[in-house]
Every structure is written in structure tokens, then in C-alpha cells.
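Hi everyone, sorry if this is the wrong subforum. Our group has a chain we'd like a structural model of before ordering constructs, and none of us has done structure prediction before. Sequence below.
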Amino acid sequence: MQVTHPNIIEGCKRGDPNCQKQLYELHKNTLFGVCIRYIPNHADAEDILSEGFFKILSKIHTFKGDGNFEGWMRRVVVNECLMFLRKSVNMHLTLELNETITHNFEKDDDDVESEYPFTIEEVQDAIQRLPDGYRTVFNLYVIDDLKHREIADVLQISINTSKSQLILAKKRLREILKKKYSFYDKYKK
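Answer:
Right subforum, don't worry. Here is the predicted structure as C-alpha cells:
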């Protein structure tokens, strides 16, 4: 994500439309990428991006300069995605796994990337094919680097549900990718 010049931020705080447009043009593609990771429907992702920028511009005065401005904007957009998902998806559907099963899944968690030559686009496509709950927890944990406790708080689920969503997301992701490249298995033997 490109770094926003402090003058643009200050101009946005004053309500300067030129600075607001510069901010939007500078970050629209990156933040749309964040939206599409959580919401694969392009029309919904565009709506969420618009809502996210509205919230960024209306709440920009709350950014005090502590930390990274781009990270703050990203968090606003991720929160908009999560609010959309909460309204449209039941995040509580996945069964919780007990610690024994969880441990076994993690122990057997083979590295799919080392087995097959996947492109970034292929992995992104596979992630988009995950069920909403799996994809959301996967993105929050793997890409946005949240801990299970933080995910549980954000999604209003238990920590074990967060863990099970991640484990099942990884398992489903492996299945999707292996199925796509099942012919590699024939030649590995």
C-alpha cells in the first residue's frame, strides 16, 4: 500500500474535496483487494469499498497520527467487510472441534505449496471458493495476522470456533487445490 502524504490526510480532515479524491485514487485498488478477499461478489465488494471510504473520510479526524494511516484505513475496510458478513452470513454454523481433533489436524497439516506449483492467482481463486465463514477466519488469521482471541471477539464467536474454522478452511483449501492438480499425483509416484 502506498504511503499517504501527511498533507493529503490534513486536507481530508479539513474536508478538502481534492485531497479526498487524491486519497481515494491512491488507495482504491488496494482497499478493493481487501474487500474482494472477504466478499467475492464484485458488486458487494464495490459497495463495501464505498462504505469504507465514507467511513474513512467521516472518521478521519479520529486518526491521531499514532501508528500507520494505511493500516488504520485497512482496519476500517476490514470492519466494514465483517459487518456485511455478519448481516448476511451465519458465522456460527461451523461445529467446534475438541482439542484432540484440533491437535491431530494441525499435526497432519501438510504444506500444499511445497507439493504443487501454484500461482498466486490460483491460490486466491481457491480462497474465494471457500465458504464465507472459513474464508473470513482464514483471511483474518493468515493474511491480516489476527490471533484467534481477536478473531473470536471481532466475529463474536468462541476461540474454538475460530480455530476449527481455520483448520477446516486449510483442509478445504488443500482439497480444492489438490483436486485442481490431481494429475500431479499420478506423476509423483
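For your construct planning: The chain is about 75% helix and 0% strand. The CA atoms of residues 1 and 30 lie 6 Å apart.
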